[in-house]
């Protein structure tokens, strides 16, 4: 492939305009590009060629560069194996402090440890290890920054494609975009003039938002937040779905979050709320300060799980697990395979189907892994734990029986 063709494919990829055959062509070239030399050169050349007026495009290119260069260029192979027995717990760990760093995965088995490594060259595979299904030609890239902003008049703005600057004015409030973050600056406003906006992230997207009072908000994939463009009443009230992390700007007016029939009242704090409709409970995790969930006050390091019809359960927790997504990581603590796959489905925008019925796997997963991995990189890691799968059409992940 010459540089002109590669430049065209990369530009089309950034605009989400690649045809399936072109995406396959790009992925196959990247897999053959030793150490990513040509791919990196073309991307960096594109960055340098952009004018100052195209700074927003340059900002968009950088995550594209990082994600493409982090794609797996080798076949995962077993590095070493120790014998074990039943009662398996999978421990995952990867370290991408630089893009080319080796990613290591450790599978702890009762009576022994299995160690795998993602390397750029093959290592002999013992025959006792389950064979990984053949990888599809087209990989699925990880999610990225993007959201849809719905204004009070119903008009929608796709934030993925907007440039830095003023998006709109809602009464006395100015809405601006800068570096993948939307901010609200409120002027003098009366209660009668307050309007509401909604920010929503599709699957495979995440976004940041600064509300009119200075509160910072992070939306995970498949989430939404509805909020006033200015806070003029005695309370600051927002409504959410999905998963949202809050850093509340402390002031006299209480800040209330409504989710799945609950009211979370901030008392000056940082906290995470996981309220996905397909999760078994709505979970509020307090990082700093204090919140009241319905009638229960949480302390830092505590987590309140609300099960509809089953009441509230409060427990101590590792808060880093709850907010790992904000820091670009997946983090699991004794999680079932189904728990892990629900999170992957939202981030990679795929549908998970269990062939032969519901998941009956006894595997549990603990540890962390980067959200910048492509889907096939991550699935190859899971395959080493004997999770069997098939990817169809680029967006349907089929989990095979017998895991």
- SSE-based structural type: alpha+beta
Q: What's the number of domains?
A: 3
The radius of gyration computed from the alpha-carbon positions, rounded to a whole number of angstroms, is 23 Å
Assess the beta-strand content as a share of residues: 35-45%
Number of helices: 7
What's the total number of strands? 28
Q: What is the annotated CATH architecture of the largest domain?
A: 3-Layer(bab) Sandwich
Q: Please outline the major beta sheet.
A: 19 strands, mixed
Principal-axes shape call: globular
Distance between the termini: 40 Å
At the first level of CATH, the class of the largest domain is Alpha Beta
CATH topology of the largest domain: Phage tail protein beta-alpha-beta fold
Report helical residue fraction: 10-25%
Uncertain regions: pLDDT < 50 for 5+ in a row?
72-90, 93-137
In round numbers, the mean pLDDT is 76
Structure, described:
- There is one protein chain.
- This protein is an alpha+beta fold and 403 residues long.
- Helix 1 (3-14) crosses helix 3 (37-49) and helix 3 (37-49) packs antiparallel against helix 4.
- A hairpin with a 6-residue loop joins strand 18 (270-275) and strand 19 (282-288).
- The chain is globular and about 60 Å long.
- The protein has a 19-stranded mixed beta sheet that branches. It has a 6-stranded mixed beta sheet with strand order 1-4-3-2-26-24. It has a 3-stranded mixed beta sheet with strand order 25-28-27, with helices on one face.
- It contains 7 helices and 28 strands.
- Residues 72-90 and 93-137 have low confidence and may be disordered.
- The protein has 3 domains: 3-69, no CATH class; 77-140 and 324-399, 3-Layer(bab) Sandwich (Phage tail protein beta-alpha-beta fold); 145-278, Jelly Rolls (Sandwich), CATH 2.60.120.1440.
- The chain is 19% helix and 37% strand.
- The protein has helices spanning 3-14, 20-32, 37-49, 55-69, 319-322, 337-348, 375-383; strands spanning 77-80, 89-92, 103-109, 112-118, 144-145, 148-150, 156-158, 165-170, 173-177, 181-186, 196-201, 205-210, 216-219, 223-228, 236-247, 255-259, 262-266, 270-275, 282-288, 291-293, 296-298, 302-307, 311-316, 329-336, 351-354, 364-370, 389-392, 396-399.
């Amino acid at each position: 492939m010459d540089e002109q063709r590669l430049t065209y494919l990369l530009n089309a990829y950034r605009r989400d305009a690649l045809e399936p055959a072109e995406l396959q062509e790009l992925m196959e070239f990247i897999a053959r590009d030793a150490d990513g030399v040509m791919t990196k050169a073309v991307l960096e050349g594109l960055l340098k060629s952009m004018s100052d007026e195209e700074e927003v495009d340059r900002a968009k290119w950088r995550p594209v560069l990082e994600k493409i260069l982090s794609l797996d260029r080798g076949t995962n192979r077993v590095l070493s194996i120790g014998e074990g027995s039943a009662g398996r717990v999978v421990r995952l760990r990867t370290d991408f402090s630089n893009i080319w760093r080796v990613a290591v995965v450790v599978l702890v088995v009762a009576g022994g440890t299995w160690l795998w490594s993602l390397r750029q060259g093959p290592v002999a595979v013992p025959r006792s290890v389950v064979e990984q299904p053949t990888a599809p030609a087209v990989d699925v890239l990880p999610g990225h920054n993007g959201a849809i902003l719905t204004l009070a008049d119903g008009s929608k703005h796709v934030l993925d494609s907007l440039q830095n600057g003023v998006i709109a004015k809602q009464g006395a409030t100015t809405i601006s975009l800068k570096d993948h973050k939307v901010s609200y600056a409120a002027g003098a406003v009366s209660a009668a003039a307050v309007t509401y906006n909604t920010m929503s992230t599709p699957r495979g997207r995440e976004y940041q938002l600064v509300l009119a009072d200075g509160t910072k908000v992070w939306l995970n994939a498949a989430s939404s937040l509805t909020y006033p463009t200015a806070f003029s009443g005695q309370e600051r009230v927002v409504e959410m779905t999905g998963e949202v992390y809050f850093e509340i700007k402390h002031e006299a007016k209480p800040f209330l979050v409504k989710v799945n029939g609950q009211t979370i009242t901030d008392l000056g704090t940082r906290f995470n709320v996981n309220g996905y409709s397909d999760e078994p409970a709505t979970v509020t995790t307090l990082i700093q300060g204090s919140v009241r969930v319905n009638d229960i006050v949480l302390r830092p390091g505590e987590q309140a799980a609300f099960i509809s019809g089953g009441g509230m359960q409060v427990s101590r927790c590792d808060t880093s697990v709850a907010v790992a997504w904000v820091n670009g990581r997946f983090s699991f603590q004794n999680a079932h395979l189904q728990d892990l796959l629900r999170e992957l489905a939202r981030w990679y925008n795929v549908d998970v189907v269990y062939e032969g019925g519901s998941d009956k796997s006894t595997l549990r997963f603990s540890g962390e892994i980067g959200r910048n991995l492509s889907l096939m990189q991550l699935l190859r890691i899971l395959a080493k734990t004997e999770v069997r799968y098939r990817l169809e059409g680029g967006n349907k992940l089929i989990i095979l029986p017998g895991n």
